[in-house]
Predict the structure.
Amino acid sequence: MQNPFAYSNYVTGESFCNRKKELSELLKYIKGSQNVLLYSHRRYGKSSLIRQVFREIQKKNLNIYVMYVELYGTISEKDFITRTFQGLNQLESNFEKLLKSVSKAIKNIKLNLSIDSATGSTLVAPSFEAVNEKVILEELMNILSKYSQKHKLVIAFDEFQEVANYTEDGFEKRLRSFIQQHSNICYIFSGSQQHLITEMFNSNNRAFYKSAESFPLDKIETKHYIPWVQNLFSKQKVNLSADAIEEIVKKFENHPMYIQNFLFHFWERPVKKGFSPEIINEVENAIIEKRSLEHTVLWETLSINQKKTLKLILLNNGSNLFNADSLKSVSLKTGSLVTKALSSLMKKEIIVKNGRYLIQDVIFKKWLQKTLSL
Ligand SMILES: Nc1ncnc2c1ncn2[C@@H]1O[C@H](COP(=O)(O)OP(=O)(O)OP(=O)(O)O)[C@@H](O)[C@H]1O
Ligand SMILES: [Mg+2]
């Protein structure tokens, strides 16, 4: 059997563990055409959850049309429009039909056709010549609105925080004014840069203020990992005990991507080598080693006080950072230096505050512990 574990892209099907509660909640919002703000730390599984819920919708023949738009790397309104236009392909299996519906819905713009070099399928995009982007956005929204008159629609804008960086005046406001009218469409706005995305929806001076149901995505619980891992390994005739899986999950602090990363490498090992704490350490070290260059680069971008503050967090398990002895142990002169460094580290999403301060990326934490000889 092919290795079922994957960690560099979204996962669905048997590589997707549980999330039953999240799937049913998301489906409830989709059915009710309630907009959703799906957010989490990096690599917790937002894109996978969206793809999986889309699969369920199609498998159950729910008669809801699905459209996924990846906004990562878009830097302008024009890019946003182009990507969303390309997404229209997902609404029709037949290109002629798509072209007919799109042509019927537009009034003021011309279309360009091109071939997608990756998939060989035909792509439809608006011609930006001689027409203002505002007009094209309006026409695009009109196409979506027309579709939604016949079918319920769910449209996921993944990495939606990119929109906050566009420099066009009033884009968020214009987009919001169209979306507001689409009562038969559920929009899923998804993103990982929490300060950016939550600011877009939680600040009362922003266009998207309170316009979507907040949907924070957490890690996956240990009790859900156990049967999922056992079942996949049983296909390779390997019996993993619940205790062993618990140990792995704990080691990677329930982080979905790192657990898959570990299991991928573990699966590749000869079965006869079995399972032992040494093997767990061996695989773990290989993972830390693989990412060490990336972590070295990150470390070098930090100021000396930020570095000291990270050490302070590790030494004190994230609490009592301001007491005199703690400060002295990392040669930090004042608490205000710590306050400033904590704020920068949180902005960079290197640390999070959850009662105490925690280093967000478990592999970075392990790399730090090694590098700082803690
Ligand atoms: N339900 C799941 N079951 C098992 N593994 C998962 C699950 N969801 C995500 N993962 C693991 O996490 C990795 C990242 O998933 P995904 O790309 O969906 O996360 P994301 O939150 O969209 O990430 P990003 O912040 O980069 O956009 C996947 O490659 C997979 O290894
Ligand atoms: Mg993603």
